[in-house]
Amino acid sequence: MALRIGDTAPNFQADTTEGHIDFHQWLGTGWGILFSHPADFTPVCTTELGAVAKLQGEFAKRNVKCVAVSVDPVAAHHGWVRDINETQGTTINFPIIADPAKTVAGLYDMIHPNEDATATVRSVFVIGPDKKVKLTITYPMSCGRNFLEILRVVDSLQLSAKYKVATPADWQDGQDCIVTLAVKDEEIPEMFPKGSRKVKSYLRFTPQPNK
Ligand code: BEZ
User: Fold this and answer.
1) Under 8 Å between Cβ of 104 and 79
2) What b/e sequence results for 149-187 when a residue is b if at least 16 CB atoms lie within 10 Å of its CB, and e otherwise?
3) Where are the domains of the chain?
4) What top-level class would CATH report for the domain 13-145?
5) Does 6 sit in the ligand 1 pocket, CB within 6 Å?
6) What kind of fold does domain 163-206 have according to CATH?
7) Which are the contacts of 45, defined by CB distance < 8 A and separation ≥ 6?
8) What angle do CA 124, 52, 130 make, to 5 degrees?
């Protein structure tokens, strides 16, 4: 069955471009992003891995470790990394899992047979420090992912993990947040000392609490 938000992210051991890992140990106590690629030496994937490498500073700031997975072997990954570094003007600075037995692909339901019988689709899993799945996104093979959107969701997830807020449509870090329905009106002044704005009984905004 497909993994759902709130499920424990399955653990596995695997060879990667940075050595053998136990996934949960490798994640440690921080956040993680596991994202899959249909195959090595493919054009869209090449641009995606370059994009993630360029955003490593942003992920690190948020205590997020990124790891990619592709069903090809480690030797192929190393050759592909050289191409990515050359063509994308960057240096891959995170591991790529080799999953020739499709173990990770199976555990995370990354093969969607009606899209392709053997290759993985473009799955993304954001995993919290508690090893629970916080976000799943699935893109088709033809469309490269928007990793700035994934950073935006991480910002929202990390905020909601700490404060009783949610984030509105198209929210960006620094903008007003929504006070969750679990908070009573009378609790707002102490919980959100920066103030609040009530539009409807169920729609209350507050400045981003950690800014
Ligand atoms: C790509 O990354 O470009 C790609 C990979 C598999 C199928 C289609 C596109």
Assistant:
1) no
2) ebbbbbbbbbbbeebbbebeeebeeeebbbbeeebeeee
3) 13-145, 163-206
4) alpha beta
5) no
6) Antioxidant, Horf6; Chain A, domain 2 (3.30.1020)
7) 37, 38, 39, 70
8) 45
Q: How far is CA 77 from CA 20, 99, 157, in A?
A: 14, 11, 31
Three-state DSSP class for residue 96: strand
Tell me whether residue 143 is one of the annotated catalytic residues: no
User: Per-residue pLDDT tens for 155-171?
Assistant: 999 999 999 999 999 99
Contacts of 77 (CB under 8 A, 6+ apart): 16, 17, 40, 70, 96, 98
Average pLDDT along the chain: 97
Check if 39 has its Cβ closer than 6 Å to any atom of ligand 1. yes
CA distance 65 to 35: 11
